[in-house]
Design brief:
Layout (H helix, E strand, L loop, with lengths): L1 H17 L10 E5 L2 E5 L7 H6 L2 H14 L1 H4 L11 E7 L4 E7 L4 E9 L3 E11 L2 E7 L9 E5 L6 E3 L2
Antiparallel strand pairs: 1-2, 3-4, 3-8, 4-5, 5-6, 6-7, 8-9
């Protein structure tokens, strides 16, 4: 981490003093600083990673729609008293690791889904609501403590809206 910071400082000084005289063919320079990845465009080319990052709304919408349509098969438990599962909110830890909260009118549940290419949806954690919040019952909580993006359905439009 200190090496990355030192390298960033050296590059800044070099580019500051020599400006356009230096003709490096570097498409992306990535610095990891406190777990945050910063991408700087040095030569003006389109950053493919950034282009992918600009699409999460579309990809997330596809994930939310698929999960909503398939919650019955994704949930490891059956609804109680003849009810049916309905997703009430999503929490995205990453673009491919998602908590889905769902209920059947009687009980509230949550699953942690990992989406891989294909797409391949895999439930890696199952949670039940408890006195102290969500309690893992099956699997593992690989995204515990990470910042989450909350999505809830807009009742008027039927679309999932980011709330934070």
């Amino acid at each position: 981490m200190a090496r990355d910071a030192f390298l960033a400082e050296v590059l800044f000084v070099v580019f500051f003093f020599y400006g356009e005289e230096i003709k490096f063919k570097i498409s992306n320079f990535k610095i990891k600083n406190l777990g945050t990845e910063i991408t700087e465009k040095i030569n003006g080319k389109v950053d493919e990673d950034k282009a992918q990052e600009e699409k999460p709304g579309v990809l997330r919408e596809e994930i939310m729609n698929y999960t909503t349509e398939n919650i019955v098969s994704l949930s490891p438990q059956e609804p109680v008293l003849g009810g049916s599962w309905h997703i009430i909110r999503f929490w995205f830890a990453t673009d491919s690791d998602i908590y889905a909260e769902y209920e059947d009118g009687h009980v509230l549940r949550q699953i942690l889904i990992s989406v891989k290419e294909g797409p391949d949806y895999k439930v890696i954690g199952y949670f039940e609501s408890g006195e102290d919040g969500w309690q893992i019952k099956v699997g593992e909580d690989t995204q515990f403590g990470k910042p989450l993006d909350l999505y809830e359905r807009d009742n008027e439009t039927g679309k999932w809206i980011k709330k934070n």
